[in-house]
Write a structure and sequence with these properties.
The complex is a heterodimer of chains A (about 210) and B (about 450). Chain A has about 210 residues and is an all-alpha fold. Chain A has a single domain, classed as Multidrug efflux transporter AcrB transmembrane fold (Up-down Bundle), CATH 1.20.1640.10. Chain A has seven helices and no strands. In chain A, α6 runs antiparallel to α7. The longest helix of chain A is centred in the last third of the chain and has 32 residues. Chain A starts with 5 loop residues before the first helix and ends in an 8-residue tail after the last helix. The C terminus of chain A is likely disordered. Chain B has two domains: about 180 residues, Gyrase A, domain 2 (2-Layer Sandwich); about 170 residues, Up-down Bundle (Multidrug efflux transporter AcrB transmembrane fold). Chain B has eleven helices and 15 strands. In chain B, a hairpin with a 2-residue loop joins β12 and β13. In chain B, α8 packs across α9, α8 packs antiparallel against α10 and α10 runs antiparallel to α11. Classes of the chains: A mainly alpha (about 210), B alpha+beta (about 450). Chains A and B meet through α2, α4, α5, α6 and α7 of A and α3, β6, α7, α8 and α10 of B.
Chain lengths: ~210, ~450
Amino acid sequence: MMRIHKSAFQAIIVSALVILVALVMTLLNLGMKYHLVAQATADYPSLFLAILLMVAISFLFGWMRYNLAGGLTLAIAVLHDQLLSFALCAIVSLALKLSVYTPAFLLAGTAFTYCFTVPWLRTARKLARTNIARDYTRQMAAQQALTQVKPLFLLTLTAAVLTLLVFLVSGNLIMAGTLLPLVTGLGASVLSVRLITPYVWAAFTFRSKTRR
Amino acid sequence: MAKNKKTGKKFAVNRKAVAALTLAVALALTVIFVTLGITGRKMDAQGLYNLLPWLPTPSQTSKWREALVPGAGMGETLVSSLSPAVEGEASREDLETAVRVLSKRLQELGWTDAVVEVKEGGLRVTLPQSVDVASLNGILSAKGEFTFTDPAGEAFMDGSNVTDVDYDYGDATGNSIVLSLKFDDFGKEAFARKSTELAGQSISLKRDGEVVVSPRIGEPITQGTVHIPMASLDMARENMAIMRSGTLPFAFNLLEEGAEEQPLMGAGVQTILLYAMGALFVVIALYFIARFRLGGLLAAWMMLLQTAFSWFFAALMRAGFTMLTLAAIQLAFFVTVFAFLNLFNGVQRDVQAGRSVRQALRDGYANEGHASLDVFTGLVLLSVAMIILDQGLIRLFGEVFAISLLIGLAITHLLLRVLLNETVWLFGGRTSLYTAGMTNKKEA
């Protein structure tokens, strides 16, 4: 039976609500506003197909590289981050209109997902493998891994913020709207790696807590 | 120390000299590469062949803008005004349809950074300054109604029966260009019937009533696919773009051609962005040097090389100086910075725990190095998926991103590792050389 940590569950609920609101807004033509009529070339079916493909590739890569739990964790992280990023773009685009590059930059947000999730995942697996105490659970490994990778996480986050700031200070609101998918992608990946992904991974092999 | 078995003589390999030579050669090659990237070079005395500079700089006299053509977002623009060739006023709905068609038309022609918008009852088209406005305006103002006619001029099918269109080389010499069309069921049947009827005669492809090409029918074409010879590559691209984007509700008249305006993303965006990118690089480099000393200096060197190579390949691929290219290169740079941070953090931790620099480096690559390897590999796989899946902007982004990631991967796991090892050989393994806040501990 899969039991997920309470805070992770709450974060997932919040994300799901945001995604639902954005979906309703988009269907009512209130969300996903583009500037300079870039919407003319927005191809949503191709975009969602690309997201599904990325989730599938992430799952297969994570499975082959780590194990089934790792593959599922990476896939869920990518799916959550992509959907939340898309949803945030739909909502925030009411203020900062999107550009023709939106689909490409939405998908590019997986760079942040990987840079934040992979180091944590590797550390958590190592902790779970090397700690032989009987009462040492995967959840403890997940939380300890979060603490261990925190310095790297903060430095990587700083580098990401600075990279985006370089663009934001250089241009006008059109530039800001163009970068919006990358900004939301960064935000979504920070949320998922700190609040969701570790507990999803910890929940996956709840049954086999003695076999790590 | 090696010993020659026959003569019994010993010869010594001066490892320090080898390390010094390796570092010197690598440094020299970097300096040459980066210098060429900034200045370019004349390849012959007459100036017929030039290696264009490829590293973007704020200099207005540099020719890098010929290698990396700025798009409408990043460079000066030309604005054309089009008015509908109809009596009375065109409806808002028709104008918005026209915007959609023309935006697709521009994208198909490779102008991803151009803009079309409704303005004062007509259309306003913003294009990069490098565009041949005169020829492009002709493509933009054309209605784009394709028909297939028999020798008598009677149309038997039209562009709506074409489901897919592309252009290709007709033979291995590259001199023959063909426009490949795939038809729907109606088109397949109509073309099969007409080509059988008119075997030995010609069928004309017309655009807006004007004949584009009239190829002779050699034998009946019944498979629903036809390859029509085109006079030139430009002609094939133009017709492909118009056919793919669809028909305009009406033709347009050109009111005003090519008025100069500022970049879409703001006046001076190019200069400010280049200075900001330079400042970011300096800040990151200084951080690495301050924290990881000699190792940090090497990291800064490798980051410069990664940037230079990324822009080199972007110029080779004619990616242009657009937000797409910039984002792809900067994101790959960010991933490389992450990889260096991960690696050097691990090395520093081991060194502070008492390990030798050499051992810490080995372990760093074995542990933290694998994390960055996973990130690079995973993202390259995703980029390849983007390239395969899409034909538009996602593909363009994926291409530049994948190349930049591969460069980062090679630099992180091959070049940096080699140079770090050589640095340890040359300068020794004193811990204070590789990490801040440590007292000197010599390597055994």
